[in-house]
Structure formats: structure tokens, C-alpha cells
Amino acid sequence: MKILVTGGAGFIGSNVVDEYVSLGHEVVVVDDLSTGFEHNVNPEATFYKVDIRSKELAEVFDKEKPEIVNHHAAQISVPVSVKDPEFDAEVNVVGFLNLLQNCVKYNVKKVISISSGGAIYGEAEEYPTTENYNPVPLSPYAINKLVSEKYLHFYHHQFGLNYTVLRYANVFGPRQIPHGEAGVVSIFITNFLNDIQSHLYAFKEKPDGMIRDYVFVKDIVNANVIALKKGNLDAFNIGTGLETTTGELYREISNQMNENVEPIKGDARPGDIRKSCLHIEKARKKLGWEPVFSLQEGVRETIDFFVKKAKEGL
Description:
The protein is an alpha/beta fold. The protein has ten helices and 13 strands. It folds into two domains: about 1-170 and about 215-240, Rossmann fold, CATH 3.40.50; about 170-210 and about 240-310, UDP-galactose 4-epimerase, domain 1 (Alpha-Beta Complex), CATH 3.90.25. It is about 40% helix and about 20% strand. The strands form four sheets. Strands 3-2-1-4-5-6-11 form a seven-stranded parallel β-sheet, sandwiched between helices. It has a two-stranded parallel ribbon with strand order 7-10.
């Protein structure tokens, strides 16, 4: 199949592209390189440096005519969305609408759209949280991810566009950008490598940090492969169902790297939620997907990646 991957030069998107290429698919990458890197793009993929908000996107669709669109391009930072909600909406809503309009115009068979199980549910009363829980998003980023799902419902109802929504937990792994709250694993690793003290943000009543569901990128990639053929017109949590505090994560990384540096404690930031953990039984039953990498295994692979990168001077 011919698959167009937006954000295919970024952390998760480029890993997905690599797997699609290895499976023999023809892959087209669209990325504006605002947070991605051209060296992440698989050499066998066709690359276009294009912003999903631009009119140039239509030219890519007209030339390539993809059968499947995998949408990873996004403004991914919760604090940035709080500081600049208009920018978040421009990318995550207006850009997405531009993409969907082109999907309809050029007869795309299916959209695999990436949402955020780690954010859209808010401070969920149901915990671990299932897909049936009524989301109460607490940041513009989370609001706009939920809005994007609603637009998918509309585009199916109005135009018959098929889709699968993957609601990610907190993803980590090789190529993760060590910036912003989304990249906490890579931030901790990079700071240890550079002898920089890390910050650990927490609510006062939970001094060991926020509780999150950390899922390794290779498990995420597998979900994107399965979604090519399964999960039509539905949304799925993609996580581990396991709780990890930021402090526990920090200690796991420091132990594996044989480092003993205390982090700088700081207050929770605007938009932070206290705990998030996803119920993943629906993905098991309907997609036949489940995570196979433990936190320890994923952290080890991620450390190895950044150590090698540091040695190569990249």
C-alpha cells in the first residue's frame, strides 16, 4: 500500500515509517521539521518538507495519491498549549482539517489518527481509564485532540471516511526529543550523560511525581501496523496499564546508568494531571495487540541509543 505519514521525521512517526518500509509498503513522509529531523526519515521513503496547515499539502496528495494516511504531526506540548492555545489549535485542529479535506478529495481509504490517552481523559474518576470514559480534558492540547476525534466522526458520517484512533499513553524510546514534558525519559538520560541535574515536577501531596503509563515506542509501532487493517471506526487505548511515578522512572534510569544524582524538585506545571493510566483490554480483544516490552527493557534500549548518539557526536 501507499501510506502517507505526517510527522514522519519525528520521534514516533519515523519509527512507524521504518516499520512500514520494512513490511514493503510505499511510504510518503510529510513533516515541516519543526520538531523532527530529516536524518530520521527512512531513505526509502519519499520526503516532503511541508506544514500540514499549508496549501502545499494538496500538491502532495495530488502527486502521491496515498491509500492510507497515518497522522502523527502535532503540537505535542501541554505547557505550550496552555501558553499559546491559538497556536495549538492552528496545528492540531486547523492543520488536521486541512489533512481531512485532502483525504476526502483524493479518496483516501483510511486515516490512522493519533490521539492522547495520557491527556484527554483529564483527572479521570475511572482508573485505569477505559475508552468509554467521558473525557474531561484539562489543557488546550487535550481539548484539541478530543476535537480531532469528533471531526473524524463527522467526516465518516458526511463523506464515508474510514478511520482508527490510537490514544497513546506516555511514549518513550529511541529518537525521542529531550525537550518538553513529553520527553521525560530522554531528558533524564541526556541530563545524566551531560552531568546536568534534572527537574522532577510533582504535586505537593504526591512528592514522588505524577503517575503515568509509559509505553515503549516499538509497542506503539506494532499498534500502527495492526491499525492498517483492523480497528475501523473506533478508538483504542495504547499503553501498558501499569503505573509509574516520575520518581520511579528517574530511579530506574539512574540505576541502569549507574548514576547517583538527586533531581531538583519543582511544583507541577499548568496543565499537568496527577495520574494517568490506561485500560488496554479493548485493544487486546479487538486488535489482538498488547505491549511486549517492559519499562526496564525499553529504558535499556533508549539509554543504548542515546549513549551511541553521544559517542558519535550527534
